[in-house]
Amino acid sequence: MSKKTVLITGADGFIGKNLAISLERYPNVNILKYTRSTDADLAQLVSDSDIIFHLAGINRPKHEREFKVGNSDLTQQLCEAVKAAEKPIPLILTSSIQIEKDSSYGKSKLLAELHVLNLYAETNNPVFIYRLPNVFGKWCKPNYNSVVATFCYNIANGLPLEIHDPSHVVDLLHIGDLVHSFIGLLEEVPKEQIFISLDCIYRISVLDLANLIRSFKEDNKNITVDEVGVGFKRLLYATYLSYLNPLETIYPLKRHADDRGAFVEMLRTKSSGQFSYFTARPGVTRGGHYHNVKTEKFLVVNGLAKFRFQHILTDEIIEFEVNSDKPQIVETIPGWSHDITNIGECDLIALLWANEVFDMQRPDTNFYPIHDE
Predict the structure, then answer these.
(1) Of the listed 26, 34, 105, 130, which one is catalytic?
(2) What would the DSSP string read from start to end of 265-324?
(3) Which of 178, 237, 261, 335 qualifies as a cystine partner to 228, CB 3.0-4.6 A?
(4) pLDDT tens for residues 153-168?
(5) pTM tops 0.85
């Protein structure tokens, strides 16, 4: 990316903050910010810019006339400043899907679009328009104009939700996908394209959205995690966590200890098993059982261990040592009994992953001490 000066209007808003913090990672990008408290002249900021992200706007005013002032009038002022600069300055406008509705907000955003389109028609200055749905992600203000932010904040803080139409479907766009698209415009300005459409839109009913966020809170109570590594759940879960205080992310685990050592279950997943760790004192052997279906992966993170496996039909025995200085994964095989002995001088510590969550009714753990004869 060549060196650029980027002007962000509404830089202290939800989208503006996320864009600015992302651009700060680029050493060749100089950021200019325009907010309601900015003393600098807008025309001068425009003249000093190589590209403009016009994110400023009004959507919850005290007086209805503020829609026009904060949306269409400010955009018109910005377009006039671009004309006066007498150089091409790509202008990106964040509009709204609400322009299709007969509301003061929708009308003001439509007028803003018209000002930008007129700028293009009169000067051929590059312009780009995003008609945004509900944008969600970290730092979005709750109880304002975002259903996701409101639900996340209220659920995280034990506050009630107000749902007028549970079946109403909302279109959602994550702030990360939007910012990624913005940064793409810095690297390459599309030709003969004004309206920018994003295909990473998620649709969900208000009730399903509320229930999904509630499930995040409940799962954290019982050390269970949903499939939050991909797709919409990944983005929504991260958003929910952003409304928590770090102290609220701490929760205790049950520690089961005896003369042999300790066992602690760390995490359960809904489709990918569970994680735990155990310790063993010097000379202690743990295990001595086999599984019919379940499989486990062990990682010794401290100490020296001897693993033994015995086939329950042939009595074949295989044994080997694993040192934490040379990390290795050891996986159990159904039909082979296995045990682990601490043959070192310090406590053995090992992480354990099982491909299924332990079921008290059908534990699939069968006692079978390994024997040499």
Answers:
(1) 105
(2) EEEEESSS-EEEEEEE-TT-EEEEEE-SS--EEEEEEESEEEEEEEETTT--EEEEEEET
(3) 237
(4) 999 999 999 999 999 9
(5) yes
